[in-house]
Amino acid sequence: MSIENLPADNAGPAIFDSLPYYDNELEQNPFLREKVEKELAREAKPSQAIHPRVPPPVELFSNHPLLAAELARIESRQPLEPLDTTRHQLPGPQNPSDEEEWKAAVRNAHAQLEHQRLRHTNLALLQQYGPNAWRIHNYLTEATAKNIEKALEDLNKLMTEVNRDRKNSQTRIGNQLTSLETRWTELISNILQIEMANVAIEVEIDRLNKSEVELASSMSTVTLTE
């Protein structure tokens, strides 16, 4: 495994024992991936309860019933109601002898006439100033789009550079770790060989000591016999 240090805000460097660009034990040993998946499956599922510090959901358009109803319609995926075209019509009075119906019909005719006049004025203004306004709008929109694309390109380049630096750094550190692990294995092997040699020497020393004792005993016996 490996170590990557990242600066923290109020403490020392945070240590992450992971080098994803270098560690490939799961790819080299498929049975390890199976063990990891089994361990993850055994872990308890995270609670779906909202953390108490999370603020309650915001109720949108609480003071605007029309907007709230429109939002509810969109959330429920209901189709938009067709436009009411009756206010753009000029129905005559159903009872020709009723003066109030005639007055209502006249007021409706005046409203329709004013509406048509405003439409004619807006169309004339649009015909006179609309093309230039749209050109300016399109120019500003294209400039904004180019700025956003340039910012996105810069961010992608920065992200690529960061990932490249991380990969190079992790590869370099990984090679150092591999070298250290190899050196550690060699040292452990040397230590084991030295311990085995010490044990063999101790056994040989014990054998020589016993032989010396036996030889000294036999020499003393020969001396007494003479």
Automatic annotation (TrEMBL):
The keyword Nucleus applies. InterPro entries: SPF27 (IPR008409). Residues 145-172 form a coiled coil. It is found in: Nucleus. GO terms for cellular component: catalytic step 2 spliceosome; precatalytic spliceosome; Prp19 complex. GO terms for biological process: mRNA processing; RNA splicing. It comes from the Eukaryota. Keywords: Coiled coil, mRNA processing, mRNA splicing, Nucleus, Spliceosome. The keyword Coiled coil applies. Belongs to the SPF27 family. This is Breast carcinoma amplified sequence 2. It comes from Rhodonia placenta. The lineage of its organism: Eukaryota, Fungi, Dikarya, Basidiomycota, Agaricomycotina.
